[in-house]
Structures are given as structure tokens and as C-alpha cells.
Design brief:
single chain; Rossmann fold; 2 domains; 12 helices; binds coproporphyrin III; binds fe (ii) ion
Length: 335
């Protein structure tokens, strides 16, 4: 396949206090999120001057990608500037015909896959019939370029624990409604949790095969009567402390960078929970723009450009696919 541009697609985040509420409204539009939850999360952004770290992280990733890619690089977000529709319009004006899109989430599910596909489709429709074709790069939950930086980070965090006695690895990812998890993957195969479990197993095997580990969930939203994936990381820390664990490494394997859900929900909230319980706590880093992660993106581009080469880096067995079928990761509201 011939591509004439690379497109980074991300979540977006506010970059000042006056941008927090309009951003939050974009995120939650039509998603049934209670007003109190919205205000609570807005407060988290306010602690950082209303500036989410995510846009700077996207800019750093783009700079790291420039020497690796032979294609012009564009960037568009779901929820904040630069908005995807503006970027796709610019691509059209620049004469781009067919672009390859990399999404800043490695996993399936409506929130982490299909919603991005819908965003791309809507942006193209906004631009009109001469909008470029845009193909999304596959999931990369078990790519060596995703596993290795996480594993090194877990290793470094373990080294920072006071003794490594009675220590436990806690992997965490964004919680989603259980119905959304069930609808993840072709035919609704619960792929979100399955992929995350595989990522966790691979990172644990590479970083600390001798240690027990768990996969837990964070940043739950939505109305209380809707079931989301559990246990929550804070509840899990309580259970571990009760069971005699004294030291934990928390590894956010669900995320590629230290965005707000990492620097607030883990570095402030979960850390406070651990302190209250007397647990030694280290949070492992995310890939960010680690050179191996950047190389991974180049390899994923090559994989699609040289479709005949048949090289498909993967350490696990949960399959990945290039084009999501129509029944893949559908919104549970519409399912
Ligand atoms: C699976 C998943 C990922 C990982 C995949 C991916 O990376 O895409 C993710 C990432 C992110 N989520 C983010 C921020 C928010 N997510 C929210 C709300 C929600 N997230 C959900 C799921 C996910 N979210 C869901 C099911 C909701 C409920 C609303 C709905 O059904 O859609 C809300 C509203 C308040 C609240 O309800 O918490 C905010 C502000 C940011 C930016 C952080 C920054 O600014 O640094 C990032 C990277
Ligand atoms: Fe999908």
C-alpha cells in the first residue's frame, strides 16, 4: 500500500484553566457522565494549572518520529486542539491522498479503538469527498517495542523499593464498563481485558518472573449503577496490605505516556492510599518517547507499507488485525 502521510491520533487535553471545562464537555458529550464526576476531574486538571501533559507528550513523540519516518507527520486529537477535522482539512489542502494513522492507545474496545475510527470517519466527512483515505494501524499491546520499555520501567521501580521483600506487581489500566469490555474485539470477544492480561504477563515475565502480579483498573467514571471493570487500584492496595504485602510497584500498562490519569490518579491518589496503608509504593514509567517505542511505530508503518514482507512483531498469542470488522469494539450503547 502507498501512503503519503503519517497521522498521530490522540485524546487531546486542555492547555490552560479556561480550556478545562470546554474540553471536559467534548469528552463527555452524549456519554452519560454525572455532572459531579465532571467537576471532580476538572479539579484534577486545575491542580496542574489546567494544563494536561498529554499534548506535550504528543509533540515530543512527533519530534522523536521525524528522523524515523519518510512521511510527512500530521497530528489530530479527539477532544482538543489540534482537532482531527482541522488536521484532515490541512492534509487535504496539502494534497495528501492516503494516510496511515497511529492511535495513542494499543488496545481494542470502543473507547480505545472504535471511537477513534468513528472520529476519523467524522473528520473525513466534515472535510468532504476529497478528504484523504485514512487507515488505522493495528493494536500493539504485545509488540516488543511496547513491552520492553514497560518492563525496564518495572525493573527500575523494583530497584527503588526499600527491600523487595513481600513485594507485589500491580498492573493497571483504565476501567471501562463491563458491557464495553464484553463488546471489545471482533464478534465481541472481551479483547480489551484479554489484551491487557497478555501485556501484563509479558511485562512481568520480562521484568520480574519471580514476583506475583495482578491486573487492576483505575479512573472509573460513569453513573454508579453501571458496572465497570474491578477491582479499583485503591481497593486492591487495601486488600494487598491486609494480606501482608508491604511493597508495591504500580505499572500503568494501559497507557503509553504519563498523562493526567497517571500523574493524578496514580501519583497522587493511589500513592496516598499506599501511604495511608503503610505500603512502600513505586510507580513505573510509561514508554513516552522511548527509542524502542519510536522504532515500534516505524516498524508498524513498514508492516503496512511492505504488506508482502510478512513481518509482524508480536510476543503474545492474542491476535491483532489490520482492519476492524464492522462488529468490532462497537459502542455498548448501540450494541
Ligand atoms: C479506555 C480509556 C482510555 C485509554 C485509551 C486511550 O488513551 O484513548 C482513556 C484515556 C484517557 N482518558 C482521558 C481523559 C478522560 N477520560 C474520561 C472519561 C472516560 N474515559 C474512558 C476510557 C478511557 N479513557 C471512559 C469509558 C470514560 C467515560 C466517558 C465515555 O464513555 O467516553 C474523562 C471525563 C471525566 C471522567 O469521566 O473521568 C476524561 C477527562 C485522557 C486524557 C488525559 C490527559 O488529559 O492527560 C486519556 C488519555
Ligand atoms: Fe476495534
Amino acid at each position: 500500500m502507498v501512503y503519503d502521510a503519517f497521522l498521530l491520533v490522540s485524546f487531546g487535553g486542555p492547555e490552560g484553566q479556561d480550556e478545562v471545562l470546554p474540553f471536559m464537555e467534548n469528552v463527555t458529550r452524549g456519554r452519560g457522565i454525572p455532572r459531579e464526576r465532571l467537576e471532580l476531574v476538572a479539579e484534577h486538571y486545575r491542580h496542574f494549572g489546567g494544563v494536561s501533559p498529554i499534548n506535550a507528550q504528543c509533540r515530543a513523540l512527533i519530534e522523536a518520529l521525524r528522523p524515523e519516518l519518510d512521511l510527512p507527520i500530521y497530528w489530530g486529537n479527539r477532544n482538543w486542539h489540534p482537532f482531527l477535522a482541522d488536521t484532515v482539512r490541512q492534509m487535504r489542502d496539502d494534497g495528501v491522498r492516503r494516510a496511515l494513522a497511529f492511535v495513542t492507545s494499543p488496545f481494542g474496545s470502543y473507547s480505545s479503538c472504535r471511537q477513534y475510527l468513528d472520529d476519523i470517519a467524522r473528520a473525513r466527512a466534515d472535510v468532504g469527498p476529497d478528504a484523504p483515505e485514512i487507515d488505522k494501524i493495528r493494536h500493539y499491546h504485545d509488540h516488543p517495542g511496547y513491552i520492553a520499555p514497560h518492563a525496564d520501567a518495572v525493573h527500575a521501580a523494583l530497584e527503588a523499593l526499600p527491600s523487595r521483600m513481600n513485594a507485589r506487581l500491580v498492573f493497571t489500566a483504565h476501567s471501562i464498563p463491563t458491557s464495553m469490555n464484553a463488546a471489545s474485539g471482533p464478534g465481541g470477544a472481551g479483547r480489551y481485558e484479554a489484551q491487557l492480561r497478555e501485556t501484563a504477563a509479558l511485562v512481568a515475565a520480562e521484568a520480574a518472573p519471580e514476583l506475583p502480579w495482578d491486573l487492576v483498573w483505575q479512573s472509573r467514571s460513569g453513573p454508579p449503577q453501571v458496572p465497570w471493570l474491578e477491582p479499583d487500584v485503591n481497593d486492591h492496595l487495601e486488600a494487598l496490605a491486609k494480606a501482608g504485602v508491604t511493597e508495591v510497584v504500580v505499572s500503568p500498562i494501559g497507557f503509553i505516556s504519563d498523562h493526567l490519569e497517571v500523574v493524578w490518579d496514580l501519583d497522587v491518589e493511589a500513592k496516598n492510599t499506599a501511604a495511608r496503608l503503610g505500603l512502600a509504593y513505586e510507580r513505573a514509567a510509561t514508554p513516552g518517547h522511548d527509542p524502542r517505542f519510536v522504532t515500534m511505530i516505524r516498524q508498524l508503518v513498514d508492516e503496512r507499507v511492505l504488506a508482502h514482507s510478512n513481518v509482524r512483531h508480536a510476543l503474545g498469542t492474542v491476535p491483532t488485525w489490520d482492519y476492524c470488522p464492522a462488529d468490532c469494539c462497537v459502542s455498548p450503547k448501540r450494541a
